[in-house]
Amino acid sequence: MAVLRGYLVRLDPTGPNEAPAKLLQHTYENFWQSDDAREYFERYRCSLDTLASIERWATGSLGRGDSSTSIWEMNMALNYELFIEFSWFSRSKPSTARAKRALDLDPSNWDALLFLATDPEYHAIPPRETFDLLQKAKAQMDNLRSSDSSWLSEPGKRTVLASIMLEFGMALWRQTLFRRRPKGEKPAQDELEEAAIIHRQSLEFGDPKFHIMKRLFREYEREGCRGLWLQFISTLTDYSARWSPSISNLSKEVLVCHYQRREWPEENRFAKAADSTNQWGTVDAFFSACLAASESHGDARLQFEIRAHYAFTLFISSQPQKHSRGLGMLQELLDPANVNQVDDLDNHLMLDIQMTLAIYYLREALAENQKETTRLELGEKLASFVCNDRILRFSTAAQSRVHHIMMNALELLSDDIEENDLYAFRLLQDILSSLGDEENLRVAWFMWAASIWDSKRDEERKFVNNLENRKEETVPGEGEGSGEEEGPEEEAGSEEEEGSDEEVSLDAEEGLEGLKLHKRVQIMDLCLGHVERTPKALRTTILMLLP
Question: Region Disordered: what ranges (predicted)?
């Protein structure tokens, strides 16, 4: 702040006395009244690079030869926005109010306009107002360019112009889509193409904003405008020398955006767009520029990732020649000579490559009229993707672990403690689920559920017995002193009825116990059967059992 204040004092020595009073009249009054915020702002420290950027900004923005209070107020309102990227005071409602106030004081304040136009919904600005502001700013810049040929000589102005044009193109695109029209009528294609032209023109003036382009690509994809998107990619390729130093950002924001691992492999949008428009030349040129930029960058991991994305794109193509080329590139990427050259390689990317090839080999092996020799070759290739080191090294340990689990289950089932049966059935459910034994998994689940039901029934029975005992202790019997009136036949009849109820309940309990005993024997036989399984039968499931 001392640096900024020095520039301000140099421009107008009387300004600092008036500016705070003016600032207190507006919505950032609460900010200045906060002691913590003021102390943080006054004592803020930054690096030399940040200080140099502040100095460049102050020289360009404050050196206008105008010492009016409004200019002071505008710049003091804006200098908070400079610290948005460096301090805690980032995207918030006070930031919105200060940017709006700065834009009201100076409509040509394009930095404040960009701050608001980037997320108009958050800043509560209607879409139509955002479009009008961006359109007016673009017209002002076009007039300045036509009247002064040297206006674009400053890099900062070129960057702002590029950002304004890109945001204006996106606003025009959204306005075209959401304009009221008769039901069933599609948006005017010529207006969408006009917005796409503005998108491409923005690349002429400044460095591309890849995080904004990701939103732009989604808009193109949503409307099925793959041809317009490839035209944008072609223009982006023409300016590859400009974004070459930022190739890592392009890989994260653009390439990964159009290749989703969770949607393998059909959602590779590069391949879909190139196949549907027959513009593979554009895609090839773009990836060639990306590979050249990554080689100049000198990052082996980045080169590997870009080659992988290019290989996936070619492999998904419906054209046999492109598909074969992509297949060869994927196989080449798995060569140990290439893998060993890359440090900190992304394991997920390697798994994606292996999965892609494994599914391809499996489909080809199961294809009709496939030669037996070809099936064997594909089977050997498919087997090479099995994690042999991991599986074979621990196959004995995995088998012994299965044996250990089964023996524990047998021991828990053999004792007289009923609670241990629950643990045994839970163990059996886990191991049977891993082994894929659905039939016996149902048996184990039934036994576990029956045990749970038995325990709940015992608790309910105890509760009912306690209630009956309390009633007998507190409520006197209705037949006291009148026992002579009751005949022996009635007593005998009641005893017979009670006896029949007990017999029915005993039969039900014996039937359930018999069923449980039968299932228990079946479970024990099942345990012994799985213990005797060969390692070969277990290899497909032991990954679930490894530590």
Answer: 467-509
Place of tokens 């360009």: 60
Q: What are phi and psi of 369, to 5 degrees?
A: 60, 25
pLDDT tens digits, one per residue of 188-203:
777 788 889 999 988 8
Q: Which residue has the tokens 């990732």?
A: 305
Report H helices in 334-437: 336-339, 347-365, 372-383, 388-414, 418-435
Q: Are 64 and 96 in contact (CB under 8 A)?
A: no
The number of C-alpha atoms within 13 Å of 410 and in the hemisphere containing its C-beta is 16
The per-residue pLDDT for range 120-143, each reduced to its tens digit, is 777 778 888 888 888 888 888 888
Domain boundary assignment for the chain: 1-106, 346-385, 389-463+508-544
Residue among 403, 436, 405, 392 at smallest CA distance from 536: 392
Q: Per-residue pLDDT for 416 more than 60?
A: yes
What SS3 state is found at 185? coil
pLDDT-derived band at 419, boundaries 50, 70, 90: confident
Instruction: Determine if the peptide bond prior to 20 is cis (ω within 30°).
Output: no
What is the per-residue pLDDT across 255-282, written as a single tens digit (0 to 9) for each? Answer: 776 555 444 455 677 888 888 888 999 9
Q: What is the pLDDT of residue 65?
A: 46
pTM exceeding the 0.90 threshold for the entire prediction: no
SS (H, E, C) 482-532: CHHHCCHHHHHHHHHHHHHHHHHHHHHHHHHHHHHHHHHHHHHHHHHHHHC
Among 538, 539, 540, CA closest to 406: 538
Q: Are 315 and 323 in contact (CB under 8 A)?
A: yes
pLDDT, tens digit, for every residue of 31-79? Answer: 444 555 555 555 666 665 665 666 566 556 555 444 444 444 445 444 4
Return the closest-CA partner of residue 16 out of 8, 4, 26: 8
The length of the chain in residues reads 547
In angstroms, the CA 29 to CA 38 distance is 11
**What distance in Å separates the CA atoms of residue 152 and residue 144, rounded to the nearest whole number?**
9
Say how far apart CA 390 and CA 543 lie, in whole Å. 9
